[in-house]
Specification:
The chain is of the alpha+beta class. The chain folds into three domains: 60 residues, Beta Barrel (OB fold (Dihydrolipoamide Acetyltransferase, E2P)), CATH 2.40.50.140; 76 residues, 5' to 3' exonuclease, C-terminal subdomain (DNA polymerase, domain 1); 44 residues, Orthogonal Bundle (Helicase, Ruva Protein, domain 3). It contains ten helices and five strands; from the N terminus they run E-E-E-H-E-E-H-H-H-H-H-H-H-H-H. About 7% of the residues have low confidence.
């Protein structure tokens, strides 16, 4: 099992990224929550990883925090939830937001995540409460977000998804403002200018 990779960030194009570790490029898939914590291409990066072995491929998934990886691993234990759906869940809602949905038994919020249907949402609400407890208090209570500009972008991304925009749309909305100074509210306001709110 590969626990983490550390090297130069060679490329990033959601959901794929490549890390150059001593001349070997590791292709990794990561959720959008992790993408917003990534440094610029060419910078040093360290990602926690989870390796999924299939008959036709070995796929490495990368995460910026212990909480994200722990949630991903526990989602894989839910019947009917594979890596793609688990990655979509982490891209569509924060760890804290997912824990809140499970606690509140909010299936409607979960079904807004691409790839999560009613049956999957109901299964998550049944099977995840105990697993969240097993992951630890950090997920149940809400883990701290990264510091600095990436934190602001991450908070804005989560807020816009909560408003009903699709994760891919939010990524495009925020892209022109990446790295700009300002509060989360400022970033959301800029992203929403000229954008029609979804019905």
């Amino acid at each position: 099992m590969i626990g983490f990779v550390r090297g130069k960030l060679a490329s990033k194009s959601p959901p794929h990224l490549t890390v150059d570790v001593g001349g070997v490029g590791y292709d990794i898939e990561a959720p959008m929550s992790t993408f917003y914590t990534l440094p610029a291409t060419g910078s040093d990066v360290r990602l926690l990883t989870h390796l999924v072995v299939r008959e036709d491929a070995h796929i490495l998934y990368g995460f910026g925090t212990q909480e994200e990886r722990a949630l991903f691993r526990n989602l894989l234990k839910v019947s009917g939830v594979g890596p793609k759906i688990a990655l979509a869940i982490l891209s569509g809602v924060s760890v804290e937001g997912f824990a809140a949905c499970v606690k509140l038994k909010d299936a409607a919020a979960l079904t807004k995540i691409p790839g999560v249907g009613r049956k999957t949402a109901e299964r998550l609400l049944v099977e995840m409460p105990d697993r969240l407890d097993a992951v630890g208090a950090a997920i149940a209570a809400g883990a701290p977000l990264p510091n600095g500009e990436n934190r602001t972008e991450g908070e804005a991304w989560s807020a816009l998804v909560a408003l009903g925009y699709k994760p891919a749309e939010v990524t495009q909305m925020l892209k022109p403002f990446a790295g700009q100074a300002g509060s989360t509210e400022d970033l959301i306001r800029r992203a929403l200018q000229g954008t029609v709110r979804p019905q």
